[in-house]
């Protein structure tokens, strides 16, 4: 059987990784897939870079539409990124009856509904293992490996840049700004790191996992997104003293009232495996009603780890494209006519526990006043850590840090209580609030 | 479309879990699979137990052949276990053109070649996710998620009983025999725990993963198998002092000369995620040339975790049975006519590093003598831990424990050096040798 013909749109980091992995392991991949998989055409605006990457046997063009329109091409791999031209090209490839493989989480989290519907109409596959957690086969695990389960929640470290920054902040006791510069110097953070450090990238990924877990459409616009830019080294230290680590988690949870979908820094018990995922590594925890807790760990980015997922999708398509389209694995795990419309909850309705840090005047009665307000709001206290005033220093009247861990509380209730505490004359600075997840 | 009809052979722990999960989550499973999945017939020697487990709507028989012969049944789930009647029934089901799902690692590790060949001839699937690591989708991850990779090695904690025992020995400083009795009382170890504690169960599982990773036939008879019965609390303590944990690992590795396939207690650096997998949990590390290190963690046994894998296989079959048989995912990841015959190496050819514990007379010159012998054999020393003699007690002349960590060494070379050290007059007891894996 002749090799399946692949056209690549964009040959940057992941594109060249994909080309290299397919070349290097072509013999083993053919033995697995039952037929060869060959990249025969590449489109990139930088034709010289592309030519250098793929050598003389591959057709290189600077117009992606030539790839999409080529009847010889069976599968289009979209590695351009973003919502603009990438969306147009993916839709045109689908219209041309081609299967599509993409690593574009932003595109699918925002326009997935339209794209999957188009693919369904044309009977082609849109595969996107590379869009979430790089080489970790988490989409496959959720969509195929855990089909027996009612998924209860997913919590993931799904952005390597922010996990690297948090690991460094903790190891070296440095503040966010300092570590970000270091991360940029080392290539772990981009020149414009906004999507990573503000949690947007993680939100794209948890949006896709949420849809797959619960059989709901992608709803990125309903996700709560909070990054790590406001985290202080002090909070990481206090969390440690209380037995926790701070991680940027993407979380989606099924509760009676609907679905939680949120990204924010979270305290996680230090003894959990996921709390020990360091540096740029990714890990996803999945809780299913039958299987219990499972965890998937690996490199979430980089040339060949991401290529590993792209090529796995190519092999899937090579293996399974003969299946009756209605019986292939559905794009979002559930059959398209079987999606439910459970709503994503507003953040005020989310129930979780909290770490609070209050910079207070070091005088009698402050703790009583603060805990009295919490009690009046019906918020239970799990632990209190009051620092000696010499621990935190400060000029003028003595100040100290008061750290409180709460029990589970509705976020709306917590917001109101924080507003009340904030106006106390003995509270001297904006209250720091970080959510806490027990993940058990 | 009418539900796919499933016949269950054996309704013990896993069988009743499978029935319960399919019942409880039937609506979600149908939305995922595109059609219902119904257990309509159950065979068990204990008809009353079976009847109590499944209720009045399911046909219960005591003769498994009635299930296998029933033309209404699309898929047979074999949960009898062992090599005897289970093998016969699986082959008969295949002959009758039925797909088979099984959790029987022993059967497939020993007779897999014959069974997969029969399935291939008849164009049916034999699915066995539940045979390895319970609910963790590790077979799917290896066979489909990591197809881009040249797999370099796999190392897994794939027997919950032994991991529970080792965790308890470490936490409580107790000896093997004591903890085994406790594990039996708690139901973590069977009345006859031989297959678990001697490493046979783990060897069945690593044999299956090895075949899938490298595209070789199952070769259980070539596996090296060593259990945990001879481990002392002292070795666990010394390992800890050197920064290691002791785990029973199933290991398969591709090296230039062939394939390593082995199960034995191993020292693992304490900072590795897998070293922190405690109690009855399972975890599998996979090293691929493109993806790097990945890890999969979850419950490796139990009623519903194992049922999670059985039902995932049922959904896979419901989804994909319309695919051209030649294009379905191959049983052992590689197409059947593309298997290679790389040989499994004898243990003497395996290269790894070692922990040695020598009970020696506490006198001058012993360390020099021992290290001299190692140097003469070309064995490099990574670390030495010499205990104060009062640390270990003892009657008569003072004795002490001498612990040595070596660099990588051929096992045959190590065996010869141990034999030489053993006959030194200052070596007072059998030398303890535990292999060490850096897993990096």
Automatic annotation (TrEMBL), chains A, B:
A UniProt-annotated Pfam family: NAD_binding_3
Binding-site residues for NADP(+), renumbered to this chain: 9-16
Occurrences of domain ACT (ranges): 355-435
GO-annotated molecular function: homoserine dehydrogenase activity; NADP binding
PROSITE patterns, per database record: ACT (PS51671), HOMOSER_DHGENASE (PS01042)
Keywords: Amino-acid biosynthesis, Methionine biosynthesis, NADP, Oxidoreductase, Threonine biosynthesis
Protein name (Swiss-Prot/TrEMBL): Homoserine dehydrogenase
Record organism: Xylophilus rhododendri
